[in-house]
Amino acid sequence: MINRLAVIGVGLIGGSLALSLKSKGAVNEVIGYSRSENARQEALALGVIDKAADSIAEAVAEADVVFVAVPMGAMSAVFADMSQHIRPEAIITDGGSAKAQVIMAAREAFGDNFKQFVPGHPIAGTEKSGPSAAFATLYEDHRVVLTPVSETDPAATAKIKMMWQLTGAEVFEMDVEHHDTVLAATSHLPHVLAFNLVGMLAQRDDCDEVLRYAAGGFRDFSRIASSDAVMWRDICLGNKQAILDLLDEYHQGINKIEQAIKDEDGDYLIEVFARAKKARDTRF
Ligand code: NAD
Question: How large is the ipTM?
Answer without folding.
Answer: 0.99
